[in-house]
Design goal:
The protein is of the alpha/beta class. The chain is built from 22 helices and 25 strands. The strands form eight sheets. The protein has a five-stranded mixed β-sheet with strand order 1-2-10-9-8. A five-stranded parallel β-sheet has the order 7-4-3-11-22, covered by helices on one side. Bound molecules: flavin-adenine dinucleotide.
Length: 615
């Protein structure tokens, strides 16, 4: 196991520079040459590239609308990059310019979209502060050195190169979206304009928002200042350094026993998958590796997981939570369920419990992992488009941001809101009542059933949940035991029969799988945009004429080769899928087969849950 950071210096307090391979202290894979730092050399390259683009645009596009504009906006130095029609085809008369697709983010959703979009049909531009994709399920293993950071990242430029290099990438944050003028405002940390503030504008025809989420602190005082988060590769590296710092500090000569204990008290706030996996990894790291290196202080180490709810891993099958709790107990990891952290200072964590009131514990290092919140750029965008009261950006079933033309949102930054049957019940009735008789026969219902089930997948889910094979069973159940041929329903009876189907509408979980599937689905829609005009593949529209151009996301075949590239996980996933444990003992015995320490084993538990549709 890797104990010392690659720079060879443990806990030197140096914050890693932001983003990029240099920042991660990793080298890009073979065949790609990345600079070791984003120092002036890289800035110059970026600036040169930018100015080169500008010069080219000027040469070929004398008209104002097609110019690359470099201007100083009020407040200074905003570069407007309006190279909307940059492809060569656009320059040939009579050839329609490619539509510009701007993608924000290089995480699970954005990268999968980029990998799958037909970049010969679109002018694709990717903007993200991270020039690599990170395989987040392995982040907890990076905190303890079980896995090297370089093993879990893939440079975005490598992906672009594989696709023939047509896609452009800008390493920058988008800080404002202007849907009215179809522009995004970006800021690069490495500085791209004369003012050096790195701000520039990019316009789009289609915008794909895939910026993920940020850690949610619930505004708890002191969290940002004193706790670690575990969302990015840099976070994992910082945690690793911090753990080592705690061990080194605890061995210093002039510390009393209490202070040593405090320093070696590791607290994880949040009993979700990330917190649990991290606590488990840390336990392995401490007991298998650090105990040998720091034998005099190993007995002072304590790991505590604080969870507000009554149990941990509540999003999974109960057996997994139970197994994890039992395993924690066996391994001496203290679990404080029913405790809400209300304040964090540099040395103590204060929490509240319904029975015990307020209490404080001293700690040496804390990792905050209590779920996800919305990024500021998304909050601002939501306000602009009238979604200010929501938690995440709402899209329809085709992943289009509601009330916002040509803008799509995928992954953790969005929630897909499924249209309810009861919202459209009158239209569904009219749609089915082909002879306008005011009643529906079984045949009329069956003629439109497929379209209804595609448009409202909750209908099929509901039937399955009630072990019904046909909607006729549902109608019979609400109307009494009438013969199938004699069944005829008026609107009230129809409403009655379908009254509960919407209870099965659920938000999709914020997982890598959902994000990747959405990226894949959306790319496919873009690739079939032209074909679908002539041959729409979606269901009949209920409220308007014609068919929807595409199947909604929920009806899309969601089999995504999620872990194909990462063979170790792929194998483990297969392993987990093939064996269905029935109780916590069985889960335990199955997980004990996996040799790599139980941090990895919990991951298997979560993969297994994923196979069952939870994660
Ligand atoms: C430690 C950990 C373990 C996990 N384990 C699992 C697991 O085992 N299975 C599972 O299914 N899920 C797991 N998840 C959840 C999974 O990682 C997320 O659901 C997934 O990353 C969401 O993908 P995304 O593309 O929406 O966001 P992300 O992957 O977070 O990507 C967001 C991207 O947007 C970029 N970005 C951010 N702000 C901006 C901006 N202003 N402008 C432009 N770009 C921006 C980011 O740099 C990043 O490239 C885990 C998450 C964590 C943190």
């Amino acid at each position: 196991m890797w104990l010392v950071p690659e720079n060879g210096k443990v806990g030197d307090g140096r914050l890693p520079p932001k983003t990029a391979f240099s920042a991660l202290n990793v080298s890009p894979p073979l065949g790609i040459s990345f600079p070791n730092s984003f120092s002036p050399r890289w800035r110059m390259r970026f600036a040169a590239f930018f100015l080169d683009g500008a010069a080219r645009a000027y040469r070929h596009r004398p008209t104002f609308s097609k110019l690359v504009l470099v201007f100083a906006a009020s407040g200074g130095g905003l570069v407007a990059y309006a190279d909307a029609r940059a492809d060569a085809a656009a320059e040939s008369p009579g050839v329609a310019p490619k539509k510009k697709v701007v993608v924000l983010g290089t995480g699970w959703a954005g990268t999968t979209f980029v990998k799958n979009i037909d970049s010969s049909s679109y002018d694709v531009q990717v903007i993200s502060p991270r020039n690599y994709f990170a395989f987040t399920p392995l982040l907890p293993s990076v905190t303890c050195g079980t896995v090297e950071p370089r093993s879990i990242v893939e440079p975005i430029r490598k992906i672009i190169t594989k696709k023939g290099g047509e896609i452009k990438f800008w390493e920058a944050d988008c800080f404002k979206i202007d849907p009215e003028n179809k522009k995004v405002y970006c800021r690069s940390d490495i500085g791209t304009n004369l003012e050096g503030n790195g701000e520039f504008l990019v316009d789009y025809d289609y915008l794909v928002i895939a910026v993920g989420a940020r850690a949610n602190t619930f505004n708890t005082p002191g969290v940002v200042e004193h706790c670690h988060f575990l969302k990015e590769v840099e976070d994992a590296q910082k945690i690793r350094r911090s753990v080592m710092d705690c061990f080194e500090r605890a061995t210093l000569p002039d510390l009393d026993e209490e202070e040593r204990k405090r320093t070696l008290h590791f607290v994880v706030v949040g009993g979700g998958p990330t917190g649990v996996e991290f606590a488990a990894e840390l336990h392995d790291f401490v007991s298998e590796d650090l105990a040998k290196l720091y034998p005099t202080i190993q007995d002072l180490v304590k790991i505590t997981v604080i969870e507000h709810g009554e149990h941990i891993l509540t999003m999974f099958d109960k057996r997994i939570g139970k197994f994890a709790e039992e395993k924690f107990q066996r391994d001496g990891i203290e679990l404080k369920t029913g405790f809400k952290v209300v304040k964090v200072s540099d040395k103590t964590i204060t929490m509240e419990n319904a029975l015990h009131g307020e209490s404080s514990v001293p700690y040496g290092m804390a990792v905050w992992s209590t779920g996800i919140g919305t990024r500021p750029v998304i909050l601002d965008f939501m306000k602009q488009i009238g979604q200010g009261n929501r938690r995440a950006l709402a899209t329809d079933e085709w992943l289009r941001v509601r009330e916002c033309e040509d803008v799509y949102a995928i992954g953790d930054c969005a929630t897909m809101s499924q249209r309810k049957v009861m919202e459209d019940i009158m239209e569904i009735f009219r749609f089915a009542d082909k002879d306008n008789s005011g009643t529906l026969t079984v045949k009329e219902i069956q003629d439109v059933l497929e379209d209804i089930c595609i448009r409202y997948p909750q209908v099929e889910l509901y039937l399955k949940s009630k072990q019904m094979s046909d909607i006729v069973d549902l109608i019979k159940a609400s109307k009494g035991d009438v013969k199938k041929e004699a069944l005829e329903l008026n609107i009230e009876e129809f409403k009655n029969a379908l009254a509960n189907v919407d209870s099965l509408v659920k938000n999709l979980p914020a997982t890598a799988q959902v994000a990747a599937q959405q990226g894949n689905y959306l790319a496919r829609c873009f690739n079939r945009m032209k074909d679908s005009e002539e041959k729409p593949e979606g269901p009949q529209r209920i409220t308007k004429m014609g068919r929807h151009r595409f199947l909604p996301f929920s009806s899309f075949d969601l089999t995504y080769p999620f872990l194909e590239d990462i063979s170790i996980l792929g194998n483990l996933l297969l392993w987990a899928e093939n064996k269905q444990p029935h109780n916590s003992q069985e889960i335990g015995s199955l997980l004990d087969i996996v040799p790599n320490g139980y941090g990895t084993q919990y991951m298997q538990a979560s993969k297994s849950a994923g196979a069952q549709g939870h994660w």
